[in-house]
Design a protein that fits this description.
The chain is α+β, with helices and mostly antiparallel strands and 262 residues long. The N terminus is likely disordered. 15% of the residues lie in helices and 34% in strands. It is globular. The longest helix has 20 residues. A six-stranded antiparallel beta barrel has the order 1-2-3-6-5-4. It has a six-stranded antiparallel β-barrel with strand order 7-10-11-16-13-12. The protein is built from four helices and 16 strands. Strand 1 and strand 2 form a beta hairpin.
Length: 262
């Protein structure tokens, strides 16, 4: 993972107004949603981020005053300066729709990047606010969203949008987990996360956004099969907590404000 990605355009676009912004999904409060309602909320917040060079990952929609921003991992954008194809889920019987996007900002501190949509998201898209008062504890269940893909030769084949669930088992910290969040804000969950789901959202059972999928432990394919490369362990995942995301987004805003004042 390259940690020297240069920050992109000013974060002032975070507050640019647009009359055509999609409706923001309501807060769920403390009332639990049904499983069907919860999985639907996750799917309609999740997007697939596809680079022009064939790379891919997942992301989620952050509600703001204008078009929603796509939040994803920095390693998904991978210093790519061209446009991205952002694919939106529109139901299991309706084909996803694509909207072009461009990199707006990438963090040098954590594995976080923002993509600006160049057109309106479909009406089915559900953007969510980033709440900082959410708490996830050991033993709590969370739902993960993602749009993984597989490679067949030179061809990338997207799988259907996925939702998986798991239980928070603890936290990790240390230098290896700095891109995921310091001070025990890198959360471990025993949920499956298929390769390509990095950057997808994590919701609690009340329907609140509580984090973003960062990745999972990897094992060497050469060790198992005698070939090069690594495969993600699909049974354990790491989440970047909303506290870490909010802290970095506030830093973006402060830096943008200083630039505007100068």
């Amino acid at each position: 993972m390259n940690r020297t990605l240069v920050l992109a355009t000013s974060c002032a676009l975070l507050i640019t107004a647009s009359a055509s912004a999609p409706a923001q999904a309501p807060d769920a409060g403390e009332q639990r949603l049904s499983r069907a309602q919860l999985y639907e909320r996750v799917d309609y917040n999740t997007v697939r981020v596809e680079r022009r060079d064939g790379g891919w990952g997942s992301g989620w929609l952050l509600a703001q005053s204008g078009r929603p921003l796509v939040v994803t991992n920095r390693h998904v954008v991978d210093e790519h300066r061209g446009s991205f194809r952002i694919w939106f889920y529109r139901g299991s019987t309706t084909a996803p729709v694509m909207v072009e996007g461009r990199l707006q900002r990438a963090s040098e501190n954590i594995d976080l990047a923002l993509i600006r949509l160049l057109d309106d998201a479909p009406a089915s898209a559900q953007a969510h606010r980033l709440r900082t008062d959410t708490v996830i504890r050991r033993g709590e269940e969370v739902i993960l969203g993602g749009n993984p893909a597989v490679r067949a030769g030179e061809t990338t084949i997207p799988l259907p949008f996925q939702t998986t669930s798991g239980v928070i088992t603890g936290h990790v910290n240390g230098e290896s987990f700095t891109p995921c969040g310091e001070n025990r804000n890198c959360v471990v969950v025993d949920a499956a996360s298929l390769r390509g789901s990095s950057g997808g959202p994590a919701f609690d059972l009340q329907g609140n956004l509580v984090g973003m999928l960062w990745g999972g432990p990897q094992y060497s394919v050469r060790t198992l099969f005698g070939t090069a490369g690594y495969v993600q362990n699909a049974t354990i995942s790491y989440l970047i907590h909303t506290r870490t995301l909010a802290t970095e987004l506030r830093r973006f805003e402060r830096e943008s404000q200083r630039r505007r004042n100068n």
